[in-house]
Design brief:
This protein is of the alpha+beta class. Helix content is 39%, strand content 14%. It is globular, with a radius of gyration of 20 Å.
């Protein structure tokens, strides 16, 4: 997976690959579907996989909690103000130079790495005992890991360990299709920037990240960024490209709890033994 991450698809070819590894491990095979993000967003890909499987069950696709009629009216009325606020916030935000990017511009060179497998049941049990979500926990672990990284890669010009790094959070209002004929392979989301606080201990980072995600869920900020981007994509190409580049340069981490089926996909009457999604960063 890491090797494939470094290999570009190339603009002269179709923007997808299907890779079959018959004898991957313990006599089991693996199929890798590698695509460019231009084909669709996370929900679109998850729906596509379900269309290819032997059973299409829209209830297995997670969706954002629908907005009520009253909430929709309020957000529509506030949209102009939300767009202005999001645009100003993005323009005045700062890149945070640190030893991850070494204060350099985007190179386009990708480097992949993976952690050890995480045991989801144990993780959920721990989160329940602490009254936090899995997202709260994972970002807190990331916070602690980055603290160790910065501590091991100190550079005087960065002034030691930073207080935070910019993290992009993909956000969308798309709902799962009710049937195969309603499936749409489109990109309809925006990356909302948030601050990932860098802390040494898990007990210190957990309450911080819990508040960050709670504020994000109850804030109008995501609607502002989503609306601003919808306006931007209808303008001449140079402007949306500038907006995407601006967001990409200021974010060091992209956190994506990618939409996926709640159950394993069916092929030829048999369930897959596992499924794995990986969303590569811009570079």
């Amino acid at each position: 997976m890491c090797k494939q991450n470094t290999i570009r698809l190339g603009c002269e070819n179709v923007q997808y690959r299907l890779l079959l590894i018959p004898n991957f491990k313990d006599g089991k095979g693996v199929v890798i579907l590698k695509t460019h993000h231009c084909l669709s967003d996370g929900l679109g890909f998850s729906t596509l996989f379900m269309c290819l499987s032997g059973e299409f069950d829209p209830k297995q696709l997670p969706g954002v909690k629908p907005i009520s009629f009253v909430q929709n009216i309020i957000i529509t009325l506030l949209t102009p103000l939300l767009v202005i606020r999001a645009t100003v916030e993005l323009l005045i935000s700062f890149r945070t130079p640190n030893s991850i990017n070494d204060d350099k511009r985007i190179t386009g060179i990708k480097k992949g790495a993976f952690t050890e497998d995480l045991i989801l049941d144990d993780m959920k049990a721990y989160c329940k005992s602490k009254n936090v979500t899995v997202n709260d926990y994972l970002c807190s672990v990331l916070s602690n890991t980055l603290y160790q990284y910065f501590d091991n890669h100190k550079k005087e010009k960065f002034g030691g360990i930073p207080d935070y790094v910019n993290m992009g959070m993909p956000y969308s209002l798309r709902q799962p299709p009710k049937s195969i004929k309603d499936v749409k392979l489109v990109n309809d989301f925006i990356t909302v920037p948030i601050e990932l606080k860098i802390r040494k201990e898990l007990d210190e980072s957990l309450p911080i990240m819990k508040k960050v995600f709670f504020d994000l869920r109850t804030s109008l900020k995501p609607f502002g960024f989503l609306s601003a981007f919808k306006v931007l994509v209808n303008l001449p190409y140079v402007l949306p490209k500038y907006g995407v580049d601006l967001i990409s340069e200021k974010n060091h981490i992209l956190f994506t709890n990618l939409n996926a089926s709640k159950t394993l996909y069916m092929f030829d009457g048999k369930k897959m033994l596992g499924q794995f999604y990986y969303c590569a960063g811009i570079g």
